[in-house]
Amino acid sequence: MRAQAIDLPIIFEHVGILAGGVAILDGISLTISPGSPTLVIGPNGAGKTTLLRAAMGLINVTSGRINWNGQVMDTPKRYAIVFQHPTMLRRGAAGNVRYALAAANVPRASRSDRIAELLALVGLDHLARRPARRLSAGEQQRLALARALARDPVALFLDEPTASLDPAASKAIEDIIRSLTVRGVKVVMSTHDIGQARRLAGDIVLLHRGRLVEAGHAADFFAKPRSEEAKKFIAGELLL
Amino acid sequence: MAEDASAFHLLLTADPTLLAIVRLSLIVSLSAVLFAAMIGVPAGAALALIPFSGRECLIVLLNAMMGLPPVVVGLGVFLALSRSGPFGSLGLLFTPQAMIIAQTILVAPIIAALSRQTIEDLWAEYRDELTAMKIGPARRVATLVWDARFSLVTALLAGFGRAVAEVGAIIIVGGNIESYTRTMTTAIALETSQGNLPLAIGLGMVLICIAILINALAWGVRRVSERYAG
Fold first, then answer.
1. Range of the domain at B84
2. What is the pTM of this model?
3. Hey, of A49, A56, A59, A90, which one would you mutate to test binding to chain B, going by the most B CBs within 10 A of its CB?
4. Domain containing residue B139: CATH number
5. How far is B207 from B194, CA to CA, in rounded Å?
C-alpha cells in the first residue's frame, strides 16, 4: 500500500499568477488533500490548466506561495501530469513507457514487467510496438496515463483528459481514474464537463476568471451551491 | 557522341584512374561530413537549448554561413596552411587533409544550422513532457538528439551533397594534383578545359548517380522514421 500522504497536502496560499500583465490566477487559497479525486471545474479561461501546472511546479507563481507538504522550493518527485494534448515521444508505445520508467530511475531489470503491467492497466498491451504517434487520440491519452503512472505517483494531475474524446474513450479514461483512486493515487483533474464532475469528484474546486469561487466536498457542492456562479454552472447555464 | 561512348566505356571497364578519383572524392567528403557532424550537431543542440545574450545574432550568422562561398573558404584555409600562415608548419597544404579541412568548414555550418532548427522544434514539442518528467539537461539533449536522429541524418546527407559537389575550395587548397588530390569535381574542371571529355563525362555521370543516391537515402530515412517512430 502506498504511503499516500507523504507528498500531500498541496496548499495554495494567496497564489497569484500574471501572464503579460493579465491575472491568470488571482489570490487562490486552497488545500488539496489526499483521498478521492479533486475535480477542478470552470468555463474555458477560468485558470484550470494554470492551477494544475502550478500545483505540478511547472509555472512560477507571481505572488503568494505553494506548499507541498512543507516544501516550498521544489515539487515532490512522485507527482505526474497528463496534459490535455500529450506529446508522444518518437518511439513505440512500450518505448514511451520505458523512457518514463528510466526517467523515474526504475531498475532496468524490472522495466519490462512494469511496461507490460502499465500497458495492460490502460488497455494498450496489444499495441505495445505501435509507434505512439500513430495511435488514436484516446489511445494516446491512455498511453500518456501509463507514462505518468511509471513514476508511481502519489498525486496525478490530469488536464481535461477527455476533452476531445468520444464517449467510449472517455469512459475508458474514467474507469482508469477510478481504479487509480482505489490504489491510493490522488487524482486532481480539470474538466468543464459538469456530468463528468458529478461522476468522479470527491472534492470540487470551481474557478471563474482566475478566482476561486467555491471549494469543498462534491456532494455539498452539487446539493447546496453557495454562489451564483456555482448555481449557474450546475444548471448548465453559460458562465460569462 | 563519341565522347559519350568513351565515357560509358570508362565506367563499364572500371577505369583505374576514374575509380581512384571517385575513391578519393568519397574519402574526402565523407571524412569532412564526419568531422562537421562532430562539430555541427553539438553546436546546433547547444544553440537550440542554451539561452544566452547574442543567441539570435549567432543563429542569423550561422544561417548565413550555410551559403559560404567555397572559394572564400578555400582562400582562408590556403592562407592559414600556407608556409607563412599560422598553421604552415604542419605542412598540410596541397594534401587531402587540407581538402577535408576546407570541406569541414563548408559543411559544419549547414549541419549546425539544420540541427539547431530540428532540435529547437522538437524541444518546443517536448518541453512540457520532459520538464514534467524532471529530465536533467544531459539526458534532455540525448533524448532530443536521439528522437531527431532521422531528421539529423537528412542534415548530414545535405552536408554530404554540398561537400561532394564542391570544387572551389578543394582546388585551391588541394592543388588538383594527379593521383593525390584530384577529386571528381576538380578533375571534371581540368579535363573539360583540356578537351578530355570522356573522363569528364564519366565522372559527371558518377557525380549525378551519387546525387540521386543521396536523395534516395534521404527518402529512405524518412520512410523508415515514419514506420518505426511515427
1. 25-183
2. 0.85
3. A90
4. 1.10.3720.10
5. 20
